[in-house]
Amino acid sequence: MTMSPSSQPTRVLPLVVLFSVLFIACSEPPPPPVETVRAIRTVTVSEPASGKMRRFSGVVEAADTSNISFEVPGNVQEVKVAVGESVSKGQVLAVLDERTYRLNVEAAEAGVASAKVALEDARRDLERQRRIAAQDRGAITERSMEQSEAAYASARQNLSYSSSRLNLAKRDLERTTLYAPFDGTIAERHVDPFQEVNRGEKMFVLYVESVMEAAISLPESEIDQIYLGLVGEVRFPAIAGQVHKGLVSEISTVAGAANAFPVRVTIEAEADNARIRPGITAEVVLLLGGDQGDEAYLIPVGALSPGGAEGGNYVFVYDAESSIVRRTAIDDAGIRDSDVVVTSGLKAGDIIAVAGVSFLRDGQRVRLMEQ
Prior knowledge:
The protein has 371 residues and is an alpha+beta fold. The protein is 24% helix and 36% strand. The protein has 3 helices and 23 strands.
């Protein structure tokens, strides 16, 4: 069938209209993306940590330390531990020559045996005189009876004394072996084999490794501004990256050198504090009371945003008028309990984000999450 020329424009017209519509649609700009407004949880900065931040240098010391010594004199036969070695309660540390003490035990045992024989003789003599006196009252004089009773009482006392001497000799023999009184680490050793030692002479210094303290000194002008239980922060120049919670556990009432008062800060025990050893340098940060000095604020740890390559810490401060957050640099003095002590960058009344800060950016529009 042959199409007539008059029918061709009828078919072309719809195609022209279709292409025109598509061209107009493609030339229109796409709709702008819908901005997602993130909900954030916030807190308002207050002033519970106002005071003076002070840093004090000190030395780490073991909280529980004991000087170990023999309770009897003698010649050291063997030393079984070395400095730095961990020991268990009851472990043998050193041994004295026990020959003299064994002889003392044998002599005391002989004395007890002799006293038992004398007591038995005195008992028999007393019983014999009592039987005779019971049969014939005039056969035994009263003086003779008193002498027999006195001899028996003296023999009993002599046996008691000899038994006590035997117990002391056995105790001294046991003390020729020196045992660890508790689990700990040998900090010092002052004895070698075949050395003659005296009673009470220091042989070892033993300390408990799990409990450490920082010994610092505070000037007389600041000693009244601290108290037992005050929380601080302890760092160690020799151990990079370790920050530990500290607790003031002892405050001396008597000033020492340069009118400074000794203070001890217990270092909170943690699993990774094996490198904290007695004698290393410690830096203690304490927040002292008073109206002078810089103000500091406590904020939750979750509010911190690390600075990345630029370093430092930041927080996101919420602007109520524009509903946006501003990334703000801060200076901190470490952690106090579960909060960060901020010394600069914030002021009382600032509203800061405390959750999801890793997803925020400077100038981002947000909305407050319902509390």
